[in-house]
């Protein structure tokens, strides 16, 4: 039976019981074609991601940027200036049109919109100095191929900012337990692919990346998320975990945002108007 005829609950239960990741792109695409459930309930987290990306980058300037799974554009559109270019890529047409509506009209000619699956998208090799990818790895079952393609698009010495949920963290275990119980009543839209943060770091390191920024935090538990406003949720996370420059209790966090730089083949040159690479311990 083709996957798209299965319900999300069927796929979720199968994935859970076999402990394997299933290819569920049609379900993911369908889930994000009507993205209000995500945009309304996770705007506090989108804000944290956008601020983290800005803080990682500081004064660095990039001429050509790519945002994979750009969603509503909140993370990368604010990085647009009259002097750079941005490619917004998302397989959800709806998300991409929301992202388009955020682009200031005077900068519209500097933005390319790509409505495609990342692994199928035809993008110019070695053309981006900065690639952002937040909230996408949870739908990627072959991380190695994904990161290899990402690397093929990056200019030598370029930067990648990637987000993942650390599946090996106790907070993540608890979240899955709640999710499994909830799925008996409300079928999930799609299953999530599990990645541990150490696997993600290992994949990037083996491909020649060096980690130069990290921010770890956890989302408030599901029950609390329904009670508090988005603004209060944002303040709760900030009060508990601080900011990338002062990350409190990172060991309590299963949400990870990493900044990686790729070593230039000629040496450790970092692309950007100012090199402020810092070695970061896990
Ligand atoms: C959880 S949202 C994250 C959006 C945004 N990056 C953020 O952090 O708020 C995931 C987005 O990635 C898109 N997406 C997931 N897998 C993708 C893929 N393989 N290729 C392109 N877009 C993808 C979805 O359509 C969705 O808009």
What can you tell me about this protein's structure?
The chain has 282 residues and is of the alpha/beta class. The protein has one domain (3-262): Vaccinia Virus protein VP39 (Rossmann fold, 3-Layer(aba) Sandwich). The chain is 37% helix and 19% strand. The chain has 10 helices and 9 strands. The strands form 2 sheets. Strands 3-2-1-4-5-9-6 form a 7-stranded mixed sheet, with helices on both faces. The protein has a two-stranded antiparallel sheet with strand order 7-8. The longest helix has 15 residues, at 43-57. It is globular, with a radius of gyration of 18 Å. Residues 28, 32, 38, 46, 49, 69-71, 75, 89-92, 95, 117-118, 134-136, 139 line the site of S-adenosylmethionine (SAM).
Layout of strands and helices, then pairs:
Blueprint: H1 8-18, H2 25-33, H3 36-41, H4 43-57, E1 64-68, E2 85-89, H5 93-101, E3 111-114, E4 128-133, H6 143-153, E5 154-165, H7 170-183, H8 197-206, E6 209-217, H9 222-227, H10 230-241, E7 242-243, E8 246-247, E9 255-262
Parallel strand pairs: 1-2, 1-4, 2-3, 4-5
Antiparallel strand pairs: 5-9, 6-9, 7-8
Helix pairs in contact: 4-10
This protein binds S-adenosylmethionine.
S-adenosylmethionine binds next to helix 2 and helix 4.
């Amino acid at each position: 039976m083709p996957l798209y005829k299965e319900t999300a609950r069927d796929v979720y239960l199968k994935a859970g019981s076999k402990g394997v990741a299933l290819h569920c792109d049609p379900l993911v695409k369908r889930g994000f074609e009507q993205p209000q459930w995500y945009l309304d309930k996770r705007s506090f987290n989108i804000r944290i991601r956008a601020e983290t990306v800005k803080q990682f980058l500081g004064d660095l300037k990039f001429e050509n940027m790519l945002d994979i799974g750009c969603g509503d554009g909140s993370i990368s559109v604010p990085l647009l200036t009259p002097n750079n270019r941005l490619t917004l890529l998302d397989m959800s047409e709806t998300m991409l049109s929301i992202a388009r509506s955020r682009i200031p009209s005077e900068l519209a000619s500097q933005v390319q919109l790509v409505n495609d699956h990342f692994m199928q998208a035809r993008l110019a090799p070695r053309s981006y100095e900065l690639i952002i990818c937040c909230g996408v790895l949870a739908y990627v079952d072959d991380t190695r191929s994904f990161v290899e393609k990402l690397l093929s698009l990056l200019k030598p010495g370029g930067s990648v900012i990637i987000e993942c949920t650390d599946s090996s963290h106790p907070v993540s275990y608890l979240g899955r337990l709640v999710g499994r119980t909830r799925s008996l009543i409300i079928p999930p839209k799609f299953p999530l692919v599990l990645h541990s943060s150490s696997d993600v770091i290992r994949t990037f390191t083996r491909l020649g990346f060096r980690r130069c920024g990290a921010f770890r935090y956890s989302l408030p538990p599901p029950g609390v998320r329904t009670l508090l406003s988005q603004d209060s949720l944002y303040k709760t996370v900030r009060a508990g975990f601080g900011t990338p420059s002062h990350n409190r209790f990172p060991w309590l966090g299963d949400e990870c945002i990493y900044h990686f730089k790729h070593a230039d083949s000629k040496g450790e040159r970092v692309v950007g108007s100012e090199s402020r690479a810092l070695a970061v311990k896990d």
